[in-house]
Amino acid sequence: MAQAQESKHEENVQSCDEYFETIQSRKKLSATLQESLTRAFAHIPVSSFPQVPSGKVIEIVADTTVLDAVKILSESNIQSAPVVNPDAKNSNDWRERYLGIVDYSAIALWVLQNAEIAAAALAASSAAAAGIGTGAAGALGALAFGATGPLAVAGLTAAAVGAAVAGGFAADKGMGKDAPTAADKLGEDFYKVLLNEEPFKSTTVRSILKSYRWAPFVPVATDSSMLSVLLLLSKYRLRNVPVIETGSPTIKNFITQSAVINGLQECKGRDWFDCITSHQISELGLPFMSSDQVVSVQSDELILQAFTKMKEKQIGGLPVVEGPNKKIIGNVSIRDIRFLLLKPELFASFRVLTAKDFITTIASATNNIGRTATPITCKPESTLGAVIDTLATMAVYRIYIVSGQDNEVVGVITLRDVISCFITEPPNFFDDYFGFAAKEILSK
Fold first, then answer.
1. For residues 99, 102, 107 and 109, what is the CA-based torsion angle, rounded to 10 degrees?
2. Could you state, in order of their start, the residue ranges of all structural domains in the chain?
3. Minimal CA–CA distance to 368: which of 359, 377, 379?
4. Which residues are CB-neighbours of 89 under 8 A, at least 6 positions away?
5. Could you tell me which CATH number the domain at 274-420 has?
6. Spatial CA neighbour of 141 closest among 180, 115, 178
7. Percent of the chain whose pLDDT exceeds 90
């Protein structure tokens, strides 16, 4: 067991090293510029980075129920939050105070996997009222999401749950522009049923955190350098980095990949930024993966298949394509899984819903045509500056590179890739600077 774990650690480090070495070898930037920029980031303290919009990091106590956690994330308009261990509230050690980070998308996956019980509770009264019999509803196997044991056998009666909502429990209170508002949209009665049925009634964030953890919890101190944060967000694949003040176990800030990209966009006009971003992406070695490595979903495949691929490949999104040439027609993000809980008509037809119908429905329902149904793309000759502008303006995590008149997908650029273009890693920086964080990164 120990040998297997050690082998996994070595593979993760090797993967990170290979990714970063590929980037550095392809950059057509002067060594002087790269070294100067790396030194500059190494001398910028994390404390200088802007605070989260509210000025306060939202935390979720580990004993909070999963459904209440959804409400907190929804009301706070955030996608993830650090989880606090109530048993260590007086501890001055962050490793005892925090158990990890809970992500909205991970919770949504858990809810879908366990919705069979809710469906059984609601089907008798609501499915019939909505004109959909439970026999015709069908079941969606939880095996598709990787569940094992009784769950895998029971499956997910998605249509029954959808029928329950359509049968009168849905409260049309509207949906925020970007926030997941599942608690409001599904309606008070629907949540009341869920909260009175197992496993929803008693399952806490603590109990699902390990199985549904998307990334390790690796904080940095306020006096750490921004270079350490940029390396964690790029080379070491973290989506967000908590910031803890020296001598205090409490998180003071939360730096995400998106926040860094927005910060970079504001550097437009500075010599070093313009020098790098004026290059075409191909001159920076982008994309970093070949076209056959891009994970996609055909427009006529079930949307379930798209989310399953994301989970299996541990990626946050993929393009919706048509035909053998992979003509892109839209985008699907792991965050979009929330719409299966927000939109009763989507949940009701989940078992037969195609990727194309899914992106069309949520785009029209949210007046967000340009972000979901219309592909977010660039050309191989696009500049890095144009890519950064698109990522920041559209508030997305990836942009797809297309070629030819048919817009064939030939690559993808992520926030991680963009950040990697601006930095290098000094010798022994990992061991000398990250210290205790090393084991956390390796244990992912």
1. -90
2. 55-214, 274-420
3. 359
4. 97
5. 3.10.580.10
6. 115
7. 26
User: Across residues 215-237, what is the average pLDDT?
Assistant: 88
Q: Which two tokens stand for residue 380?
A: 């191989």
Quote the CA–CA distance of 218 and 232 in Å, as a whole number.
Answer: 9
Token representation of residue 3: 């040998």
Residue of 67 and 390 predicted with greater confidence: 390
- What are phi and psi for residue 13, nearest 5 degrees? -65, -45
Q: The pTM is what?
A: 0.76
Quote the CA–CA distance of 406 and 313 in Å, as a whole number: 26
